[in-house]
Design brief:
Layout lengths: L2 H14 L4 E4 L5 E4 L1 H7 L11 H6 L5 H8 L5 E9 L5 E13 L2 E10 H7 L2 H15 L1 E6 L4 E4 L1 H7 L3 H4 L12 H15 L4 E8 L5 E13 L4 E10 L1 H14 L10 H13 L4 E8 L2 H7 L2 H18 L4 E6 L2 E6 L3 H13 L3 E2 L2 E2 L4 E8 L6 H17 L4 E4 L2 H22 L4 E9 L5 E9 L1 E2 L3 E2 L2 H11 L2 H22 L4 E5 L2 H4 L4 H12 L6 E6 H8 L2 H13 L2 E7 L6 H6 L4 E4 L1 H5 L5 H16 L3 E5 L4 H9 L4 E3 L9 H9 L1
Parallel strand pairs: 16-17, 19-22, 22-23, 23-24, 24-25, 25-26, 26-27
Antiparallel strand pairs: 1-2, 1-5, 3-4, 4-5, 6-7, 6-10, 8-9, 9-10, 11-13, 11-16, 12-13, 14-15, 18-19, 18-27, 20-21
Helix pairs in contact: 16-17, 18-20, 20-22
The chain binds ligand C2E and calcium ion (2 copies).
Length: 670
Amino acid sequence: MSRNKNYNYVENLLLKAPFPSFALDTNGQIIIYNNSCEQLFGYSAQDFHSKDLIKNYLLSTLSEDTWQQILNAEQFLRINQIQMVNKAESLINADIIVIPSTLNNKQCIVIHCLLEEQFSQINYSNQELTDLKNGLLSSFMMVTIDQDGFIINCNSLFLKTSKWTPKRILRKTFWQLFPETEESQEITRNIWNTLTSGNIWQGDVQKISKNGVTYWVHLTAIPTYSQKDEEYRYVLIEQDITYEKELQQKLERIAYVDAETGLMNVHRLENTVKEMIAEEQRFYFVYLSIDKFYTLKELHNTQLENNLIMEFTKRLKIYFQDSLLARINESDFVVITPLGEWFIQGFLTYLKQNPIYIGNRAMPITVSGGITRSPQDQSNFTQLMNASLATIANVRDAGGDNILSLSEATHKALNRKSIIEKRLLLALDQHNLKVLYQPQMDLKTGKINAVEALVRWDDEQIGVVSPDELIPIAEETGLINDIGSFMIEEACKQAATWYQQGFNLKVGINLSVREFRDKNMAKFILNTLMKTGCPAELIKLEITEKFALEAEAETSIIQQMRRLEEEGITFVLDDFGTGYASFRYMQLLPIQVLKIDQTFIQSLTQSDKNQRLINGIVNFGKSMNLTVIAEGVETEEQKQLLEEYECDAIQGFLISKAVTAEEIEHMAKA
Ligand code: C2E
Ligand code: CA
Ligand code: CA
């Protein structure tokens, strides 16, 4: 068969098929789209001139993997039970058949769609229904009720659990299936009203068996219309969940109580506080933390420590009678009380008047506490906790042994934080974050050979938020992951563009350890490289010493780093020298570059000693076969010294602050 014939054959088959069929090129672009498609999906062939319409609309429910599987299909493939999205954004159930083929000399992929609605009309309709019914009957308890509430039908699973015989149950009413408690009757009424008004009811309910034993089911109650009898019927489909319910109740009892003191634990506290807030109750949230608990603990043994906690709990219970008490962790407690501030602060005096004796020695216990009012100061649980910790930090800074209210200053700082959180969510949504690039100069050639990507945010409402303020808040709220993916995508895109334009520029990206806790981090980075066409060798990931210290203990992080290194990505140890320097992790982690922190560079010209120290750091790096970069270089003098030490590259205001990609291009050309 000639190629031409082949073309006609495939094209004819496609165009004339009585079901939706289309052909894609290997990039996923539509090349042929038949009438049936237009009719059933609503999109016209013209709609598909815009790229990705097929992937992002019609087939948008497919996973990336499935999509790739389709584009790379080498033989006939059938993918069952997918959902397609039509132009009106409704879902269409279908199986698709994927056939790799050739059209006009080019490879293409032909896709035939077998829509459920089309096919169930043509064939098997009865068989399918029968299968469905059998499946339901063998997996669920089922009861059918007539429109007056009398049971007219049920299956054997139902009989088994309810202990009824078919003969007896058929004269009973719907209401007799449920216990006679107030609560249960209320639910039963609700189900009946929902059904008789033509709606589906779904939920967990308690039922009662013939011999009075209660059991739990997950119930779906559906109104149906019997054409034969011209009557409404109600079908109850039930799944026994008694075991799960009991287990859950047991777990809740165990999990919600602090085993040592019997006080509620932090989870229960959270629920309670949420309920109180929902009920618009006003209360003081008092967070009490025993000072220097760790030193106290080291001085004594665990038995004594337990006694101490028990005695402390006893005093809390006596002093804060009728208040809610919770234990947060070893040394921290929360009291929820309507009693006023002066009373709360009086607990410290009470504690001094009633010291805790261990043996016959009074323990020198002091407490730091924070009082936050709800709803006036803070109005959700996380905010209450954060506000308390901030207040306590202030109290401790001033020597501890005090209970203070959330101060005006802390209040403002917290407010700014929560505003930043809210605006950041918006900024991420609307792509309002920007990336600037700070150049690095290779000291041997004097050329710009790399840049560091730094996040910039100028919010229309709150103005510029510096990374030093932004990043810690983002880390706390988890939004750092979104910032991270944004930066990675932008940086890879930019690196790829420069690469195509012939610039030889590596791009550094800052990552925090929290982002690597995501098990898919390496995969995400590699995918982004692929998507943007960026060679892995162009990307440097900057991690801090703190990151390294934590990564050392987490094998999954190390594995992900190794995987990235194997692909050609470089790791830079940022802010080197500012903290935890440990030679262990330098061996354990795949680090190729050291970046000497700016504080060292700034002290460079201050004394001989500093110079020897920094010369030493450079030598150390070289002896470990690492590339050494100095950051925060601001003066010609600093640059010259670093050149003398044979430092590899520098970054800092002397070269340039962080600038736009275009400005980088001018510098790299020069
Ligand atoms: P870093 O990674 O140490 O970045 C270098 C910081 O030093 C940048 O501040 C840069 O503008 C500043 N700098 C550069 N040259 C000089 C100089 O010659 N003198 C002085 N005094 N400063 C200089 P920036 O952009 O405010 O970033 C602060 C920190 O925020 C960064 O410190 C980094 O830890 C973090 N950060 C920035 N962007 C990101 C990001 O996208 N993701 C993450 N996780 N962290 C980021
Ligand atoms: Ca950095
Ligand atoms: Ca740094």
